[in-house]
Structure formats: C-alpha cells, structure tokens
Design brief:
The structure is a single chain. The protein is mainly α. Helices cover 82% and strands 0% of the residues. It is globular, with a radius of gyration of 18 Å.
C-alpha cells in the first residue's frame, strides 16, 4: 500500500512542469559536472596552470547538497499544493492520520536522496570514500531533505512564498563550502548548519567527534522543523 502511495506521489510530481525541473536538476548537474571534469578540467589546467584536484571534495559536496535542497523544495511545493486543496486536512480525519500523512510525504525526499547521493559519489568518483562514509552521508542527506521540506512547508503560505524561502535557504548550501573562505568565525557559524557537515564527513577522516556533532546538528534542526510544523497546525 505504501509503495503504491509513493509511486502515485512521484507521478503527481512529474505532472507539474516546475516540480519536474526541480526533480531532475541534481541529475543534470551531475552530468554537467562530470563532463566538465572530463573535458574542461584538463583544458583549464593547460591554459591557466590552475589545478582543481585540491578542490575535488568541495565540488562533490556541492553536487551532494543540491539533492536534499532541491528534493526538499519539490516535496514542500507538493505539500503546499495539497494544503491549498485541503487534502492534508482530509488525511487528518482518515485512518492514516495527520502524522501518517506527513510521514508519507517525507519519505519522498528521504528515499530519493539515497540513490542521488550514491550516483554522485560513484559517478563523479572525486574522493576515495569507504562504504560506511557513503552510507552515513546518504542518510544524513535524507535528513537534510526532510528539514528543508518541513521548514518550507511550515513557513510558506503558497508557492510564491515557497520560492522566496527556497532562495533564502541557499545560504544553507553555501555553508557546505564555507571553509574555502578560510575564516574561522564563518566556519564556526556554518557548523550549526547541517550541510556543513556533509563536507566535514566527506573530506576529513571519519571520527567519533565529527560524526557525533553532525548527528546532533541534524537532529536539532529536525526537531526545530517538526516543532514549526506542529505549531502551524
């Protein structure tokens, strides 16, 4: 039953042109980056002498953070549409209940984030990653997509506001590459944003401290996002 509901939701997303574009942007970006690495990077190095190898981890991070950000945005738009159509109010009085409705919608970005993350890691193949690292990053990306979904759904009254908030959330994505600025205070502030930890887990050796901090930050944002949704209800 849940599989049928999930497939129905995906078909619903694909029928909307704007949501369809958002849904496939991570894949388009993945192909574009791969083509640049194959054809553009050697040419850039030949013409300018600039080596991109030290920044490969950050390039992969950008690709990885696109998935939860865009998939979360797509799902939030779907839920905003359903709120306008009073569908989610109808669900709240049915056996599935309000919590069941929210959980079923949040499965969309979480489940889709996992193959998107795996594709990004193995297709680009920019950083030597262990299986455990890839799994952890994929799961945390799924949590990030849920946070983005809930924040936009709770804050935006309609799709127009949703687009505005989605632009504002771009700063979260920038947190993933904040270390490039080489200013400690910026990195310290970015450490409170989930996307920052994608970079830390990706580039640096996996250890208990970084994993624990990453989980604490993700859970804190998840709790905040859930609280905002409950307050809006």
């Amino acid at each position: 039953m849940r599989i049928k509901a999930f497939s129905f939701d995906i078909r619903r997303l694909l029928r909307d042109q704007i949501l369809r574009i958002f849904l496939f942007v991570p894949l388009i970006a993945l192909v574009a980056i791969k083509l640049f690495l194959i054809f553009g990077e050697p040419r850039l190095s030949e013409l300018t002498g600039f080596l991109m190898a030290p920044y490969h981890g950050y390039i992969l991070t950008i690709c990885l953070t696109l998935s939860p950000y865009l998939l979360g945005t797509v799902t939030a738009f779907l839920m905003i549409d359903e709120r306008d159509e009073s569908i989610y109010e109808l669900m709240s009085v049915m056996p599935i209940g309000y919590k069941g409705y929210i959980a079923s919608r949040l499965l969309i970005p979480f489940i889709l984030c996992i193959p998107y993350t795996l594709l990004s890691c193995f297709v680009l193949n920019l950083v030597d990653l262990s299986v455990s690292k890839v799994i952890i990053i994929a799961l945390l990306s799924g949590v990030q997509s849920i946070v983005v979904t809930l924040l936009m759904f709770s804050l935006a009254d309609n799709k127009v506001q949703g687009l505005t908030y989605s632009k504002g959330l771009n700063i979260f994505v920038l947190a993933a590459v904040s270390d490039l600025v080489n200013l400690r205070w910026i990195s310290n502030i970015s450490a409170f944003i989930p996307f920052y930890w994608t970079t830390q887990l990706l580039i640096y050796p996996l250890n208990f401290r970084s994993l624990s901090l990453a989980m604490i930050v993700h859970l804190a944002w998840l709790y905040l996002a859930l609280s905002l949704v409950r307050a809006r209800r």
